């Protein structure tokens, strides 16, 4: 939560777009797409502290991009790649809109040449 200048309190909603906005989180998702890993295994490939990676893991979990399960003393993270369907749908819809706009522009340019 955070307070806006007008005094309204906003609840920060995390979504898949926020999850993939950061390159470190994209790399974590890519690494987890190979299979579940514990946090220590995730930290190995990054030049970051365990706490830094834990913050990214928290965002990914809040966005629904990963699930975390406790096994003994370790936490294992697993990618939930089906969450990327929202991004795929958005890209496809955006592509359709832009293709229609380009077709209209192309037709306009053809009409003005005549």
UniProtKB/TrEMBL annotation:
It holds the Pfam family HTH_5. Gene3D superfamilies: Winged helix-like DNA-binding domain superfamily/Winged helix DNA-binding domain. SUPFAM superfamilies: Winged helix' DNA-binding domain (SSF46785). Residues 5-99 form the HTH arsR-type domain. It comes from the Bacteria. InterPro entries: ArsR-like_HTH, HTH_ArsR_DNA-bd_dom, WH-like_DNA-bd_sf, WH_DNA-bd_sf. SMART domains: HTH_ARSR. This is Metalloregulator ArsR/SmtB family transcription factor. It comes from Mucilaginibacter gynuensis.
């Amino acid at each position: 939560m955070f307070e806006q200048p007008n005094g309204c309190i906003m609840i920060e909603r995390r979504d898949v777009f926020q999850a993939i906005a950061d390159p470190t989180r994209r790399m974590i998702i890519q690494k987890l797409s190979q299979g579940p890993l514990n946090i220590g295994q995730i930290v190995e490939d990054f030049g970051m502290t365990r706490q830094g990676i834990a913050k990214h893991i928290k965002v990914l979990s809040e966005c629904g991009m990963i699930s975390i399960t406790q096994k003994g003393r370790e936490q294992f993270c697993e990618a939930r790649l089906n969450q990327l369907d929202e991004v795929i749908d958005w890209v496809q819809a955006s592509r359709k809109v832009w293709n229609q706009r380009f077709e209209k522009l192309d037709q306009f340019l053809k009409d003005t040449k005549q």
